[in-house]
Amino acid sequence: MIESTVRLPVSPRTGRFLVLAGVFVCAACGLVYELELVALAAYLIGDSVTQASVVLSVMVFAMGIGSLLAKRLRHHASAWFGLLESVLALVGGCSAMVLYAAFAWSGGRDELWAGGSRYLLVAFSLAIGILIGAEVPLLMVLIQRIRRQDAGGAVADLFAADYVGALVGGLAFPFLLLPLFGQLTGALFTGSVNAIAGGALVFGLFRQDLSVRARWVLLTVNVVVLSLLASAAVLVDDFERAARRAVYGRDVRVAVQTDVQEVVLTGGRLGSLDLFLDGRLRISGRDEARYHRGLVAPAMRGRHARVLILGGGDGLAAREVLRHPGVRRVDVVELDTGVVDLARHDPALSELNAHAYRDPRVRVVHADAFRWLRLARTRYDVVISDLPDPGITPSTKLYSQEFYGLTTRVLADGGRLAVHAGPLATRPRVFWTVEATLRAAGLRTVAYRVGGRESGFAPGPDRTAGGPTAPRDWGFVLASRTRPVLRRAAGSAVVRAGEPAAELTRQRGLAPSTLMHPRYAN
């Protein structure tokens, strides 16, 4: 039999308010845990749509299991709710550190990690979902013990508080927790709030329900959980530095979290400098020159007074453009101001880009390329698309038919577009989908590859930096509205050498990728 109504230290109205406030806080914390797992999964594993789907679907399923299991706990709802909140605070608060530790100390960017990490991600999603799912049935018992009411009214009150709390948690994660604390400390802070809220509700309102032994057990558990979370928060900076060294090597010089992504610079000499964006190797001093010359040089054959670079905040594409005489204006459209600041001021990176941003012809526009193109009115002789690989989910819109349609609007008569389309040897379907999408936008195309790749520079959605599926080349597509102009541009030595090798891998009959039907997922 479920516990009957008892006298509380506050009025029934105040008691109901406090329970609903507890629901609000717990719901906010629960959603933060979900978003934290989604963000970490996208960062550590890649392909954010897939990882978000896995996390959210497993969590919703687990919440159903938790609700069913909570039926057995209703007879001692107060004690069980307090215990569940402590466990949820510990599991949810430490989930980010555990996942990051597994990533850092298990060869983070190899295929074994990618497989094992998904199991770990599912395990956390399942555990957190079960604990969250058990909250509402127990809270239903507690709120009914304050004042009996019809089930429909009680459910409406609980779910209203739950949904509003979820809204607050969903907004707090990107706008408050991440900017102020980062992912690791933000999760620990959320766990602490969760433990305090659960403990305060039980000890403040329902302590008379607990036996002396239960009170001491709950108090001990809460103190232990809060101590562990506090200790982790104190050590989190040292932990993050050690994990970063394990992932990137000991020569980490710069590590900053911008509004867009985590940016890490390693190495100090030109040949050893590496730039990582959200854990993916974006630039390697060992071979970036081959990549950027392969991307830029063919498109610069012909008139090139006005040049637009989409992405390329590191300044390296701009460096190659400025090597050509006759350039009067270079516009760089880059979303992440942090990358541009590093390219301007970091001694090694600015030396690598030949101090391109000091050139008065270079103008930086901090904007999303898709949105910027919709409003652009300037016409350019050359457009360089130096963007992350299309296999990374957030980049798919920048490789869509709609995006290339907007790009053609800013191409001057006889203008050329050069597109980085990802590694051709290991992802030929993705590469040729980019080429098919360009053709669907009304452009003539020439595909080519540049080999001799020494690093995992600019990989796609996975973390593979070695092994059989590691990228071994770069694939590019040169495009123009008219074939004669295109053939002149394609007469460069880079294209002549790389076009036959690319054609050997051609896949025909591929549909173009659009905003409503992206086709770049592996």
TrEMBL record:
<comment type="subunit">
    <text>Homodimer or homotetramer.</text>
</comment>
<comment type="pathway">
    <text>Amine and polyamine biosynthesis; spermidine biosynthesis; spermidine from putrescine: step 1/1.</text>
</comment>
<feature type="binding site">
    <location>
        <position position="292"/>
    </location>
    <ligand>
        <name>spermidine</name>
    </ligand>
</feature>
<keyword id="KW-0808">Transferase</keyword>
<dbReference type="GO" id="GO:0010487">
    <property type="term" value="F:thermospermine synthase activity"/>
</dbReference>
<protein>
    <recommendedName>
        <fullName>Polyamine aminopropyltransferase</fullName>
        <ecNumber>2.5.1.16</ecNumber>
    </recommendedName>
</protein>
<feature type="binding site">
    <location>
        <begin position="368"/>
        <end position="369"/>
    </location>
    <ligand>
        <name>S-methyl-5'-thioadenosine</name>
    </ligand>
</feature>
<dbReference type="InterPro" id="IPR030373">
    <property type="entry name" value="PABS_CS"/>
</dbReference>
<feature type="binding site">
    <location>
        <position position="314"/>
    </location>
    <ligand>
        <name>spermidine</name>
    </ligand>
</feature>
<feature type="transmembrane region" description="Helical">
    <location>
        <begin position="216"/>
        <end position="236"/>
    </location>
</feature>
<dbReference type="InterPro" id="IPR036259">
    <property type="entry name" value="MFS_trans_sf"/>
</dbReference>
<comment type="function">
    <text>Catalyzes the irreversible transfer of a propylamine group from the amino donor S-adenosylmethioninamine (decarboxy-AdoMet) to putrescine (1,4-diaminobutane) to yield spermidine.</text>
</comment>
<feature type="region of interest" description="Disordered">
    <location>
        <begin position="501"/>
        <end position="522"/>
    </location>
</feature>
<dbReference type="GO" id="GO:0005886">
    <property type="term" value="C:plasma membrane"/>
</dbReference>
<feature type="domain" description="PABS">
    <location>
        <begin position="233"/>
        <end position="481"/>
    </location>
</feature>
<feature type="transmembrane region" description="Helical">
    <location>
        <begin position="82"/>
        <end position="107"/>
    </location>
</feature>
<keyword id="KW-0620">Polyamine biosynthesis</keyword>
<feature type="transmembrane region" description="Helical">
    <location>
        <begin position="51"/>
        <end position="70"/>
    </location>
</feature>
<feature type="transmembrane region" description="Helical">
    <location>
        <begin position="184"/>
        <end position="204"/>
    </location>
</feature>
<keyword id="KW-1003">Cell membrane</keyword>
<feature type="binding site">
    <location>
        <position position="334"/>
    </location>
    <ligand>
        <name>S-methyl-5'-thioadenosine</name>
    </ligand>
</feature>
<feature type="transmembrane region" description="Helical">
    <location>
        <begin position="119"/>
        <end position="143"/>
    </location>
</feature>
<dbReference type="GO" id="GO:0004766">
    <property type="term" value="F:spermidine synthase activity"/>
</dbReference>
<feature type="binding site">
    <location>
        <position position="394"/>
    </location>
    <ligand>
        <name>S-methyl-5'-thioadenosine</name>
    </ligand>
</feature>
<feature type="active site" description="Proton acceptor">
    <location>
        <position position="386"/>
    </location>
</feature>
<dbReference type="GO" id="GO:0008295">
    <property type="term" value="P:spermidine biosynthetic process"/>
</dbReference>
<feature type="binding site">
    <location>
        <position position="261"/>
    </location>
    <ligand>
        <name>S-methyl-5'-thioadenosine</name>
    </ligand>
</feature>
<comment type="similarity">
    <text>Belongs to the spermidine/spermine synthase family.</text>
</comment>
<dbReference type="InterPro" id="IPR001045">
    <property type="entry name" value="Spermi_synthase"/>
</dbReference>
<dbReference type="InterPro" id="IPR029063">
    <property type="entry name" value="SAM-dependent_MTases_sf"/>
</dbReference>
<keyword id="KW-1133">Transmembrane helix</keyword>
<keyword id="KW-0472">Membrane</keyword>
<keyword id="KW-0812">Transmembrane</keyword>
<keyword id="KW-0745">Spermidine biosynthesis</keyword>
<dbReference type="InterPro" id="IPR030374">
    <property type="entry name" value="PABS"/>
</dbReference>
<feature type="transmembrane region" description="Helical">
    <location>
        <begin position="17"/>
        <end position="45"/>
    </location>
</feature>
<feature type="transmembrane region" description="Helical">
    <location>
        <begin position="155"/>
        <end position="178"/>
    </location>
</feature>
<dbReference type="Pfam" id="PF01564">
    <property type="entry name" value="Spermine_synth"/>
</dbReference>
